[in-house]
Amino acid sequence: MSDSTHAPDPSEGMHGFEPERRARALVEALPYIRHFRGAFVVIKYGGHAMVDPDLAASFAQDVVLVRAVGLHPVVVHGGGPQIGEQLALRGKQSVFHEGLRVTDADTLDVARMVLVGKVGRGIVGAINSVGGAALGLSGEDGRLVTAVCRDPALGFVGDVAAVNPRIIERLTAEQIIPVVSSIGADPSGQAYNINADTMAAAIAGALGAAKVMYLTDVPGLLADPSDPSSLVSGASVAEVEAMVASGAIQGGMIPKARACVDAVRQGAGSAHMLDGRIRHAVLLELFTDAGIGTMITDARELGDGSSPDDGSGQTGEGQP
Fold first, then answer.
1. Domain spans of the chain?
2. What is the pTM of this model?
3. Pairwise CA distance, residues 220 & 294, whole Å
């Protein structure tokens, strides 16, 4: 959506755009809307996008628009900082092991309360306030996510053993936007706290989602972690694994990178790391030629910017 006379900030809205620019933006989106109509798009929601009111409002608008043009958005969220705050108010210190919160019975109760009863309800309310029809649930509901204990030393921290996507498919068939909290349960009914990135990957794979998007607080994967301009716009699963092994991907980005790899291997068409600090990041990735962030696919298939309707199935960074 370039223009020789004005290059807007990617986070800028449509307000103030001249009529021609607005029309061009809509025309650019049309082939993507056609291509993805009826497809599932899983969005892992977190970071600044969740805690900044303006970003939260624009995210809700994005989700409602995505649903309105015929796609099936599914929101998966965590709430680590909010859980930590609530534990601190109760005089309980958070303990982490290899980046995961050690979860005893009391911590699990707090996690369920915060994720399902507070964070999830807030997201549902935001989406509904801008014209959507969202419904909150957790992996416990409808046996959506069957969990298994990851490590007894971590307490009630789980991994995803299986996903039953039928409840999501039924909700989306009724034009409802599912908002899923990252709690699962084993066959006995014991609840587990599950990493939201991991849950989003598993749900995207089970649904055969066209895309799974991770809203982060960085531009995407960086070839050089100290250089924000070294953004990797597209990579294969093998290339991402090599970046992890070489140390190019470090710290908190490692779990997100692995989640992207897992999502693609489990059946998602592509996985994306997006800068959730940019307003309307979801729309920019889905419906523009340039796209944003990093796209990860099973094999490196970056296109030349051609339309999704040209028969090649390839486009630019916003490609299907």
1. 34-310
2. 0.87
3. 5
Residue 127: how many other CB atoms lie within 10 Å: 25
d(CA 123, CA 117): 11
Q: Locate 49 and state its tokens.
A: 């996008």
Count the neighbouring beta carbons within 10 Å of the beta carbon of residue 60: 24
pLDDT digits (tens, 9 = 90+) for 78-137: 998 999 999 999 999 888 877 788 999 999 999 999 999 999 999 999 999 999 999 999
Contact yes or no for 268/201 (Cβ under 8 A)? yes
320, 262, 227, 5 alpha-carbon torsion, rounded to 10°: 20
Q: From the CB of residue 125, how many other CB atoms can be counted at a distance below 10 Å?
A: 13
148: CB partners within 8 A, 6+ apart: 158, 159, 160, 161, 186, 192
Going by C-beta distance under 8 Å and a sequence separation of 6 or more, which residues neighbour residue 298?
Answer: 236, 237, 264, 265
Task: Provide block-wise average pLDDT over 10 residues at a time, the chain (320 residues).
Answer: 39 58 85 94 90 93 97 95 93 83 94 95 97 97 96 95 96 97 96 95 97 92 82 92 86 85 95 94 92 86 42 40
Q: Under CATH, domain 34-310 is a member of which superfamily?
A: Acetylglutamate kinase-like (3.40.1160.10)
Q: What is the pLDDT of residues 247-262, one digit of tens each?
A: 888 777 888 899 999 9
DSSP 13-39: -STT--HHHHHHHHHHHHHHHHHHTT-
> Comparing C-alpha atoms, which of 210, 207, 133 is closest to residue 177?
133
Residue with tokens 């807030």: 122
DSSP 68-101: HTT-EEEEEE--HHHHHHHHHHTT----EETTEE
Secondary structure string (H, E, C) spanning 260-295: HHHHHHCCCCEEEEEECCCCCHHHHHHHCCCCCCEE
